[in-house]
Amino acid sequence: MHMLRTLILLMVLPIFLPCSGWSQEPVMAPEYIKEINTLKANGQVKLAFDRIEKEDAETVRDMIHLTEILAPPFGEGPKGQAFAELLRQAGADSVWTDPEGNVFGLRKGTATETGYVGLDAHLDVVFPEGTDVKVRYVGDTLKAPGIGDDTRGLAMVIRILNVMKETGIRTRKDLLFVGSVGEEGLGDLRGMKYIFNQSGLNIDSWIAIDGGEIGRISNAGLGSKRYKVIIRGPGGHSWGAFGLANPHHALGKVIDQFSTAAWDFTSGDISKTSFNVGRIGGGTSVNSIPFESWMEVDMRALDPENLAEVEKILKTTVQQAIDEYNASGVKGKVEYELEPIGDRPSGELPSSLPLIQRTMAATASFGETPVLGRGSTNINIPVSLGIPSVCIGRGGKGGGAHSLHEWYLNEDGAKAIQLALLIALAQAGFEN
């Protein structure tokens, strides 16, 4: 297994640039199209598809139940407990929560083959404590923060496990049904980092559910670096201590110099690279010279070398701006700290891998056109390690993700669940 992953990783390393957004036109191998069509025609699989459609209301019920348990960043515990109970009810052979908070349900395979196949959705949402997550119906539309991203995915994972139990479907390899933590924002993929770097679990491949319509398939991870820049000074009264070094004034110079230099770089003849000052803060009152000022910066790039360069620009311009500010004639000086708050690796898997071929073939079997693309999702971690991984959509229709007005319309929602089941069965080895 170690040698296989090494070979896959060697295949991955040269392939960073071709996939930008959703533009890759994949080629499907005939043997995988045949495999998927044969699997889809199987009586047990047909029965499972039928049960998914008949249990549509139960899937929505689970989605509403989980949505109304707020899971803010680093506060996924209560939602994880509810998800674990649903896994038990759905027939998992065993259920556990790891030290990071990831929740697992195991459905054992029939063979002695090693390596788990993971089916995952993330527990966390972007909303802070106190957010109203009560689900409301507006006609046929469900509205609540987190209703789609990614609570719909969690409900899909539960339904797939449940119909496998009901229909007696088995796979040769063990299947893990997972609710992961830390996918959003400053969670920095901490759940996936723990699973793949510390848990000791032998993961064969990973299927994440975290996207919109079906057809869009992520086989690549968009790398990012995030920093909190903290500037500190003595602080004082705006009148009585006028002229004292002011962290806010220094931060303004930092933002100006960084954004100018970063814009020059990203506007050049390079693959897409971005930067953003997303949050700023500090100070105690309008008539006080602040003792602290801060900003949070997000940088992303298709090419790891470009990401490293824009990170270097940040570090260089912060130092330069602070030095210039301290030399400008102010009394005293400010000091700064660069605190890393996010590091998501990039990578891309070749479309020739069996998991990606199966995902494309399964997608096409539902009348959808598969398009490969890149995103910042849970698969960033396994992809960077060369482990076969895809991220697929939740289906239905939705919008307003990461807003208080998020909505989901369950239009053909069962199709996405059937697709995820088909991919998981093909990858784990359907036991006929």
Provide an overview of this structure.
This protein is α+β, with helices and mostly antiparallel strands. The protein folds into two domains: 2-222 and 346-431, Zn peptidases (Aminopeptidase, 3-Layer(aba) Sandwich), CATH 3.40.630; 223-344, Alpha-Beta Plaits (2-Layer Sandwich). Helix content is 37%, strand content 25%. The chain contains twelve helices and 21 strands. The protein has helices at residues 2-12, 30-40, 43-54, 56-67, 77-89, 151-167, 190-197, 247-266, 304-326, 354-365, 380-384, 413-428, and strands at residues 94-97, 103-107, 116-122, 136-138, 141-143, 170-171, 175-180, 203-209, 216-221, 223-232, 236-237, 273-282, 288-289, 292-301, 335-344, 347-348, 371-375, 389-392, 397-399, 407-409, 430-431. The strands form six sheets. Strands 1-2-7-3-8-18 form a six-stranded mixed beta sheet, sandwiched between helices. It has a four-stranded antiparallel beta sheet with strand order 4-5-20-19, with no helix packed on it. Strand 4 (136-138) and strand 5 (141-143) form a beta hairpin. The radius of gyration is 24 Å and the shape is elongated. The two termini are 25 Å apart.
Entry summary:
This protein is an alpha+beta fold. It contains 12 helices and 21 strands. The strands form 6 sheets. A 6-stranded mixed beta sheet has the order 1-2-7-3-8-18, sandwiched between helices.
The percent of residues in helical segments reads: 25-40%
Give the helix/strand class.
alpha+beta
Q: What would CATH call the architecture of the largest domain?
A: 3-Layer(aba) Sandwich
Q: How many β-strand runs?
A: 21
Overall radius of gyration: 24 Å
Low-confidence stretches: 1-23
Global morphology: elongated
CATH topology type of the largest domain:
Aminopeptidase
Overall mean pLDDT stands at 94
Q: What spatial order of strands do you see in the largest sheet?
A: 1-2-7-3-8-18
Strand content: 15-25%
